[in-house]
Amino acid sequence: MPKSGNDLKVNGSMRLSGGVYDNAAVNGALEINGALKCRELAVNGMLNVNGNLHAVSAVIRGRLDVEGNMEAKSLDTKGKTDIEGDAKIGEIRIEGALDAEGAVEADKITVRGHFMSEKGCNAEEFTATGRFRIEGLLNAENINCELYSKSYAEEIGGREITIREGRGLNNWLKNIFPGFNILDGRLVAGTIEGDTVKIENTNANIVRATDVTIGEGCEIMLVEYKNSLKTAPGSKVKESRKI
Length: 243
Description:
Blueprint: E1 8-10, E2 13-26, E3 29-43, E4 46-49, E5 53-60, E6 63-66, E7 70-77, E8 80-83, E9 87-94, E10 97-100, E11 104-117, E12 121-147, E13 151-165, H1 169-176, E14 187-199, E15 202-214, E16 219-231, E17 236-242
């Protein structure tokens, strides 16, 4: 394998075995048969890694496919990133799409587009403007989501949880075209549990928290609260219980 400190720059189409690099820049199409390790990764074209990917920082403006696990201090994806394994990344910024077949662990996740994890997501801070789908548990200290399309999480747990329908474009379209639901910013969840939970446009089986605010457009089977419960007119709560 190349020694650490070598740079890799691809402008055309190329296949290489796994390697260790300092800076790796892909402006064309590159397939790596093995693991890739580098300090700085920049993908403006297409990169397919048939193994694990380890980088200090990765900036994706094209397409990245990782057939193994990915580790990085930061990932900034403005294109499309697919990870077949688990992802352990310090900070994730998504302005396009990120799909992970494994679990995702990060300090901070900021979504402005689409995010999916098939085996759960754990972070200190999770902020989403767009949509997400998480099989298993979405766990974060602070969760703040503005949804512009249907989203899903099997379980949501955190300290401060805020879920609201996307403003701006959603409202503009609905005012012009009544009943226009292609951008329906709705969350479907099994259980939502936190200290403070404020939700709207949410369908959930159980909401459990110290303080709960059920905003407009919600359908909740059971709410359990310790201190306070506020429910907007028109929202449906089948059962509420102070615990």
